[in-house]
Amino acid sequence: MRIKVVSNYTAIDQAIEQMENVMRFRRMSLKTQKSYIHWFKRFARWCYSNRYPSPEQRIAGYLSHLVKSRNVSASTQRQALNALVFYYKRVKQHDLGEFPKFAYARKPKRLPVVLSKEEVSALRNHMTGMHWIVASIMYGSGLRLTEALSLRVQDLDFDRLVISVRNGKGAKDRCVPLPPSLVEPLAQHLDAVRRNFNRDLANGYGDVHLPYALAKKYPNAPHEWGWQWVFPARKLCVDKATGVLARWHIHDSATQKAVKTSARSAGIKKRVSSHTLRHSFATHLLEDGYDIRTIQELLGHENVSTTQIYTHVANTGALGVRSPLESVA
Predict the structure, then answer these.
(1) Cα 52 from chain centre
(2) pLDDT above 80 for 222
(3) Domain map (residue ranges) of the chain
(4) Is 65 helix (H, G, I), strand (E, B) or coil?
(5) N or C, fewer C-beta in 10 Å, the chain?
(6) Average pLDDT estimate for 11-36
(7) Sorting pLDDT into bands at 50, 70 and 90, what band is 9?
(8) Does an H or E element contain 120, and which?
(9) 219, 225, 226, 230: CA torsion to nearest 10
(10) 25-80: per-residue pLDDT in tens?
(11) Of 139, 151, 125, 110, nearest to 279 (Cα)?
(12) In the predicted model, what is the mean pLDDT of residues 160-166?
């Protein structure tokens, strides 16, 4: 498809609308939708001054441009490739052929940053409130940040000490353990959340965003306690899908900032992010003797090879060898 240069980017808007409809139909996550649209916009504008006869050549040319002119990482280039392939194959129904050679971004083989148990404790001691609970769940249950923030009240089973992760990466559900030490803090937190929820209902609000068409199938669900976010945002916002003023969960950047700030306050010199807590969860389970397959299931990894990277940073397990220097007199 050759995108024509028109005022207000009309052709791009039409293509984006088609793309959004297909992504919604395929029930892709909002985060993925936003990312794909972002890359398509950049690609479409780049095409104005870079003319190629075929989609394969346009995609290859743009991917080379990202590496040579923008110096992007391998993961960023892969993300752009996925977005553009999705557009041509799923939206335009164009069967892409073989791509011409293009510049590949090198993918470095880096090990995950892992905190010791003492460092995790120090980090949590410098956190408070809602972000302390989110960080504790990520480390205690191995959740991704988006999975933790997307928890609904009904996903917490205090009797069985289980957290149900709905629509995780790859649109998969799984169950993870709920640490007993978090039961009381979570119960107190939910009491405060419920009081705010009751105030919203009294003021004529109380709606919560529901995935897909559940709001139409269950009209009362947006006002039910079980569907409310465990970590709701302080302010109401308009739900783009329904146009109703509703409450969303807290933004992921807030927790990310809280984790980094707390790491600095705790004097941790490592490059700590919120995902470091998930890495630490997996590594510490491996060090405690848990089977790699069990850890794979808890993390929601599709392939065990993804989980095996933690054997390179664990103190015990596949690579937990004892240095021969320690046996030298």
Answers:
(1) 35
(2) yes
(3) 7-91, 117-312
(4) helix
(5) C
(6) 89
(7) low
(8) helix 117-125
(9) 120
(10) 888 888 899 999 999 999 998 988 888 888 999 999 999 999 999 999 998 999 99
(11) 139
(12) 94
Q: Which CATH superfamily is domain 117-312 in?
A: Intergrase catalytic core (1.10.443.10)
Phi-psi domain of 161 (left: phi exceeds 0; alpha: psi -120 through 50; beta: other): left
Mean model confidence pLDDT for the chain: 88
CA dihedral 40, 44, 45, 49 (to 10 degrees): 150
Q: Six-digit token pair at 159?
A: 């009797």
Task: Please give the Cα distance from 329 to 59 (Å, whole number).
Answer: 62
Of 1-15, 121-135, 175-189, the poorest mean pLDDT is in 1-15
CATH ID of 7-91, from 1.10.150.130, 1.10.287.110, 3.30.930.10, 1.20.1250.20: 1.10.150.130
Q: How far apart are CA 129 and CA 141, in angstroms?
A: 18
pLDDT level of residue 321 (50, 70, 90 thresholds)? low
Q: Which helix (H) or strand (E) holds 81?
A: helix 74-86
User: Is the pLDDT at 272 greater than 70, yes or no?
Assistant: yes
Q: What is the pLDDT of residue 8?
A: 46
The 3-class SS string of 220-288 reads CHHHCHHHCECCEEEEEEECCCCCCEEEEECCHHHHHHHHHHHHHHCCCCCCCCHHHHHHHHHHHHHHC
Residue-by-residue DSSP string for 129-163: HHHHHHHHHHHHH---HHHHHT-BGGGEETTTTEE
pLDDT at 1: 44
- Active-site positions? 144, 169, 275, 278, 301, 310
The count of residues in the chain is: 329
